[in-house]
Design brief:
Strand order of the largest sheet of chain B: 1-2
Shape of chain B: flat
Radius of gyration of chain B: 26 Å
CATH architecture of the largest domain in chain B: Orthogonal Bundle
Oligomer: heterodimer
Number of domains of chain A: 2
Strand content of chain A: 5-15%
Number of strands of chain A: 10
Distance between the termini of chain B: 45 Å
Helix content of chain B: over 70%
Shape of chain A: globular
CATH architecture of the largest domain in chain A: 3-Layer(aba) Sandwich
Number of domains of chain B: 2
CATH topology of the largest domain in chain A: D-Maltodextrin-Binding Protein, domain 2
Number of helices of chain B: 13
Number of helices of chain A: 16
CATH class of the largest domain in chain A: Alpha Beta
Structural class of chain B: mainly alpha
CATH superfamily of the largest domain in chain B: MetI-like
Order of helices and strands of chain A: HEHEHEHHHEEEHHHHEEEEHHHHHH
Order of helices and strands of chain B: HHEEHHHHHHHHHHH
Distance between the termini of chain A: 64 Å
Largest interface: A-B, 50 and 43 residues
CATH superfamily of the largest domain in chain A: Periplasmic binding protein-like II
CATH topology of the largest domain in chain B: MetI-like fold
Radius of gyration of chain A: 24 Å
Helix content of chain A: 40-55%
């Protein structure tokens, strides 16, 4: 009996050992000759666009794409963990501002020659291409574009006695119109002049920085190693929003808003005018009358934060050719016009911005035209400095808008320190 | 091996017990082997790897470069580290005291078998069946003033005039989180204490009562001293859990407002997954592990 038990235990030990050692075997299998199924990851924020592209591709190609959508907040850690374990998917999209860090870590495959062979390579969204370039080599293509613009609610404008067809042309007008909405319609606490994500680093850069750019100023040096967020242009933008919060023109929870729900109030018809991501235009209630205008500086100008995702082949992929077939298709005329433009999405190619679908809605033409005018800031340490809730930027922005604005110069030095790590 | 064990060869008389002993020893090793492998693969190997990582600059992809002791010497330069240590200690102290008190109170309430007591035991324990991340999300939704029910309810009842900023100020964020932890863990700790309470012989209570002890005397002179081993277990679980707190702050408060609820494990997480400094994060983890082992050893000695 004892011997039998010992034998069973020994077999169990063998099975465990085999299981522990067996996981690495599949890497060495050669690439299949027939149709290939490649794996792709994307973050939830741009899920709809990725799903549409993958569905259209799978419907008329032999190779197939298996898409996995990961919650936006967990995306960066998941990529880091997968890279550490050498288990990245064949292709993965990433928030464009994280791309320089990923390329510097060697996560993406060099696709310089493949991109060079594309006939429309010069039409690819310039800011996305810039961030996907490291030491003269190209690593990513633009995947989805998400621009920050001001949305205004035309019905609320009419009710408040404002001209519903005239949105703000300067940040000052933005503040005046928001204040009017608040004064005329905000008495019962259900409607507010404006809103912003006051406890969300990514929301601040996406919605505040374009006002600085529109004023002709910068938020960082071109190398992304020195912060300029204590300069007068930024200070004035902070001050405008600080006034709006102090006068209770913003929704009361703006200070606590961590990011997940900051875009949820406008579609409910509760906000007069606010910065919004362009990708939400297609998801607004059909009967809601919405005006769209570029984000302006304190005295005019126009700019936008060209956000969204870039996509590349992971450096550990064994299916580079199949992966490239899919990637190059996503920026083809067919995918851009019949999938992206048809759904009012911003196009990854500037040469297609006027197409048969976008012409139906002048707001879409406007958004597409901003791709060439907007900016995407470059910094290797962007995420840990600006997006991370524990990073130095969120502290600076919150002190500037809600707290002690005299701390800004000192906190700006901390941002620079973080950028140079 | 089985052949050797089944048919031992004839040897000199004095060697036979030795061969049998060796056989039994080998058998013992075989019995222990599966557990040993599990402990080795799932506990020792990761531990050795973390220590090794902490001695290297460890990139996401590519070769690690030995750089000891840089990852350790730079820990004090981490701008979040000292605040996180202080906050975690404060959180641990408050949580442990409150959790022990509430759990003991609940356990005493449902200690005796009375009609309906099973219902209350189940009700108190039920939150423990909710995943902790799900519980944190639940609180986030319930206390959110934009879409949660609590804010409007308090206002409609006239209890508050303005929405309460549950996670809007450092103190409120801390106490809202502690409320979440109490809700989630008090029932579980109650269960641990209940097993301790029920292991105290009834005769001891009867003897005390017949000697004229009142309820307070029974509680302080009998229940508490006899509950000491169980309380020690609960205390160690609570201190360890609190020092390693992560989910509640990561999901519920996001470490805010203004980094006021950033725990040590959140700093480790940030270093690893936002800053991609895996070596630095590993060094912090090792320091935390040493601190935990030290503190628990101290606690066990004091409470033995």
């Amino acid at each position: 009996m004892r011997l039998r038990l010992a034998g069973i235990a020994f077999l169990g030990l063998l099975a465990l050992t085999a299981a522990a050692c067996g996981s690495g075997g599949s890497d060495k299998q050669p690439q299949a000759a027939g149709p290939v199924t490649i794996t792709m990851w994307t973050r939830a924020a741009t899920q709809a666009q990725s799903e549409r592209l993958v569905k259209a591709y799978n419907s008329n190609h032999k190779n197939q794409v298996k898409l996995t959508v990961i919650p936006t907040d967990n995306y960066q850690p998941r990529i880091a963990a997968a890279a550490g374990a050498k288990q990245l998917p064949d292709v993965f999209a990433a928030d464009v501002i994280f791309v320089p860090n990923y390329t510097s870590q060697g996560l993406f495959m060099d696709i310089t020659d493949r991109v060079g062979a594309l006939p429309y390579k010069d039409g690819l969204a310039p800011s996305h291409m810039k961030l996907g370039t490291l030491d003269g080599k190209l690593y990513t293509l633009p995947h989805t574009l998400d621009l920050s613009v001001w949305f205004w609610n035309k019905d609320l404008y009419s009710k408040a006695g404002l001209d519903p067809e005239k949105g703000p042309k300067t940040l000052k007008e933005f503040a005046e119109q928001a204040t009017t909405i608040q004064q005329k319609l905000g008495k019962d606490g259900k409607v507010h002049g404006t809103f912003f994500g006051g406890n969300c680093g990514g929301c601040y850069v996406f919605t505040f920085w374009p006002s600085v750019w529109a004023a002709g100023a910068q938020v960082m040096n071109p190398e992304g190693t020195t912060s300029l967020n204590d300069q007068p242009a930024m200070t004035e933008v902070f001050k405008t929003y600080r006034d709006l919060y102090e006068k209770k023109v913003t929704g009361p929870t703006a200070k606590e808003e961590q990011g997940p729900t900051w875009t949820g109030f406008f579609p409910k018809g509760e906000i007069g005018v606010m910065p919004m991501p362009s990708t939400t235009l297609g998801t607004m209630p059909a009967d809601m009358k919405i005006g769209v205008t570029p984000i302006a500086g304190p005295d005019g100008g126009e700019s936008t934060f060209v956000g969204g995702d870039s996509i590349g082949i992971s450096s550990t992929s064994k299916n580079a050719d199949a992966a490239w077939e899919f990637l190059s298709w996503t920026v083809s005329d067919e995918a851009q016009v019949e999938v992206m433009a048809k759904n009012k999405d911003v196009l990854a190619r500037t040469d297609l911005s006027n197409n048969k679908y976008s012409a139906e809605d002048p707001r879409v033409v406007l958004i597409n035209s901003l791709v060439a005018k907007g900016q995407t800031p470059f910094a290797l340490r962007f995420g840990q400095t600006f997006n991370d809730p524990q990073g130095p930027w969120l502290r600076l922005a919150r002190e500037a808008v809600f707290g002690d604005a005299s701390k800004v110069p000192q906190l700006n030095a901390e941002i620079t320190k973080s950028l140079q790590q | 091996m089985t052949l050797t064990l089944g048919k031992p060869k004839r040897r000199a008389a004095h060697t036979v017990p030795s061969a049998r002993w060796r056989g039994r020893q080998a058998q013992g090793w075989l019995y222990a082997a599966p557990t040993a492998v599990i402990v080795g693969v799932l506990f020792l190997a990761p531990l050795v790897l973390v220590v090794w990582m902490s001695l290297n600059r460890w990139p996401l992809l590519g070769q690690a470069v030995f750089n000891a002791p840089d990852n350790y010497t730079k820990i004090p330069n981490n701008p979040l580290f000292f605040d996180a240590v202080l906050f975690t200690l404060k959180y641990t102290a408050i949580t442990t005291v409150l959790l022990s008190t509430v759990a003991l109170g609940l356990a005493l309430l449902v200690q005796e078998r009375r009609p309906g007591v099973a219902f209350f035991r189940t009700a108190f324990f039920l939150p423990g069946a909710v995943g902790f991340a799900a519980a944190a999300l639940l609180f986030y939704g319930m206390l959110n003033n934009d879409f949660g029910p609590i804010g409007p309810l308090l206002q409609n009842l006239g209890i508050t005039k303005e929405p309460v900023k549950w996670i809007g100020t450092p103190n409120m964020a801390l106490f809202s989180t502690i409320a979440l932890v109490l809700w989630r863990f008090a029932g579980f700790n109650m269960l641990i204490l209940l097993t301790g309470l029920q292991s105290i012989p009834v005769e001891v209570y009867e003897a005390a009562r017949s000697d004229g002890a009142n309820r307070w005397q029974i509680f302080t002179k009998i229940t508490l001293p006899l509950l000491r081993p169980t309380l020690a277990l609960m205390l160690i679980l609570s201190v360890t859990g609190s020092l390693l707190a992560f989910d509640q702050f990561f999901i519920f408060t996001n470490g805010g407002p203004d980094n006021s609820t950033t725990s040590i494990v959140m700093v480790v997480y940030r270093d690893a997954f936002f800053r991609f400094d895996l070596g630095g994060a590993a060094a912090l983890s090792v320091v935390l592990l040493i601190a935990l082992v030290g503190l628990n050893t101290l606690l066990m000695r004091r409470l033995r």
